[in-house]
Amino acid sequence: MPYTSELKELIKKVEATRPARVEKKKRGEEFPLLSLKEREERLKKYHPDFKEGSRKEIRVGPNKGYAISPEIVNLLEAKSRLNPDVIDLNRVAYETDILVLGGGGAGTAAALIAQENGAKVLIATKLRHGDANTMMAEGGIQAATKGTKDSPYYHYLDVLGGGHFKNPPELVYTLVTEAPKVLAWLEGLGCMFTKFPEGRLQTLHGGGTSRKRMHYAADITGAEIMRTLRDEARNRVEQIKVLEFSPAVELILNEYGHCAGAVLYNLETEEYFIVKAKAVVMATGGSGRLHIQGFMTTNHYGATGDGLILGYRAGVKLCFLHSVQYHPTGAVFPEQAEGLLITEKFRGAGANVLNIEGEQFVNEREPRDVESSCFIRECTEIGKGIPTPTGKLGIWLDSPMIDIVMGEGVVKREFPGKFILFKRYGIDISKEPMLVYPTLHYQNGGLEYNSRCETSIPGFFSAGEVSGGVHGENRLMGNSLLDVCVFGRIAGISASEYVRGKFKDGKLTLDHVRRYHKELEEAGIITDRVAPMLLPDYSNPQVRERQLTAHYLGTIR
Amino acid sequence: MSAEEIKREELVPIFIMGKRYEVPSSITIQKALEYAGYQLIRGCGCRGGICGACGTVYRFPGSYKIEIGLACQTVVQPNMYLTQIPFFPATKSIYDIEKIKPTIETLVKAYPELLRCLQCNTCTKSCPMDIEVMDYIAAAMRGDVARLAELSFDCVMCGLCTARCPAEICQYNIAILGRRLYGKYIALKAEHLASMVKEVEKGKYEQMLRGLMDTDEETLKDLYNKREIEPEQAAEDWTPKDKIYL
Fold it and tell me: Which of A27, A333, B142, B228 is the 20 to 30 Å CA partner of A131?
């Protein structure tokens, strides 16, 4: 639906201030960036992480006493979907060298590299191969590739600044030094990055970058990477098998405490299957669909944090989960597009963010957590948010100025995905601004791992959004596509080396699940909650009332 | 949208696989399916119009025309008869990207049915992304890999073109082969990338990075605050004043 007459009136204020803002932009005058101290003040006062009730202590497991989002705690303090006593671990349905859980960017990268290192791979994924947040990442992938103005040194500093200097150094070192190699790998696989005619990669700024190192494939960078990796995996179908609609519901360990497989659940036939593997790579991604604090999300339908639960139950620690990333620019209009990611590349390309008066109130390229906090401040304390027809508040993202500054047609060419989408709603984003508000975007933390993707459990490796550490307390734009490729590849190497070296065959067990259930009981947690969640609950309550004979286990009928 | 907001809204009839349901008039087909009581397993992915999981076909009573859309992006319309096509069998050629060339022979060898195209344009009319599908197939038939890649770039691989093609061509898999050929063999290589990889592998940045890793937080903050920022409007050949860490 096009803008209402009320909103069209308000857009006039944006248009009124635009010529002066465009002139400023052309002169290179920027709205001042906040100092580190000012950033901290804004975060403490306005970021959802610091809101009262936003954290709750976990009462069981290796991180007992660690306070994180209650939505995640509730899943950690839940029972397995399985009764370990009724499942026969001798009935092995699949046997493989390496089991990869998750068919997104990290999982597929791990599978490709593991296969190149001689391993037989099975990918088990909850939905289709490629159904993942990787597919939805729009803006780009960071890497210091232009030696005349950038280097891994500056990339390292930027990552640390974005993450509040809390990131484990070894992980960041690995991220920034592997980055150029990953770009070259993707180029070699045939990813269509946006280039100058002579082959030079085009790059832009992102929030918190000191150099323009955001490489992109128009505004569908993640989709371009994902479909290329998936196509490559399909070319190796003999050594990389894929089981779709088969999420893992529990890890299997062996008598030595090593990871030795997983129990999968066929979402369609409702059967459970045992997979025996010499090593397991966890790459199930993030948790936006838990709708932390009721926020809308940019995440994929399957992003329910399953890997956190499985890893934690088996004994792997969690870290950095106390911080959650809210992307500053999720769509709030039209309503059908609510929560939809509006890539940071719009701001990287120079679009201002504005309040109801059409005034700037923050530089458009602060790190995401700071930018989001400033939006929330403007809409709450300052009271200059733009009201939507459904009673929400938003901030203007002035996309038309990109065409004015960079040339007619740039919005359509550089943002084809968003241009078509809004055109369908009767909004021409090269002529009218977009209305945005922070939306739940990224799980900064996750399973604790090291720069070889090893966890505390031998034979169990972790890669991508399910892991925590490399981004510290806040990830910068363009570092998640990089993360899945860098650590996905490393997990593939480490897991295949493990299979050839330290792997030791042993009797399969789910004793860790029994122990976890006992611990829940001892902590006095009596609940019928089950985890992992697998799919979010978007059912209609009125329908649920009439489903008199339906049985739900968690959110699944 | 909260349940209460939905309640206040006008309901319209839609027909899911022929069966009538009343759903709020402003929601997408995907949300309408959920409102009607379906728990989606197939036919639902990113919910943001990019993954291609929710291809949907529909028709209005009395109309000859088959309409198409992505369920997560298309708002319901009164009396639409719809079904999702969450999967469609497709041919996928197996190839070694290192060993093929960006030529018409590669395309035809991988997908001989490409030459069966009738130029009926049904594929283009079936594309929810407004891609000129028939034109990129025509480019493929001419061996114009660059044009094939360019025209098909926005493809979400939902498979609606393939489902409707009377010549039984799998357009979207031909398209990705074309894009990979273009990306690997036709687009010129990024020389700055190759030289950066070489420098990293030679260990050029090793010492400076190890230095940073051993630096305390206060000094890091100072370095961070003082780091030179490339101006947004800077030209491609911009260089920083401080070149020690390059």
Answer: A333
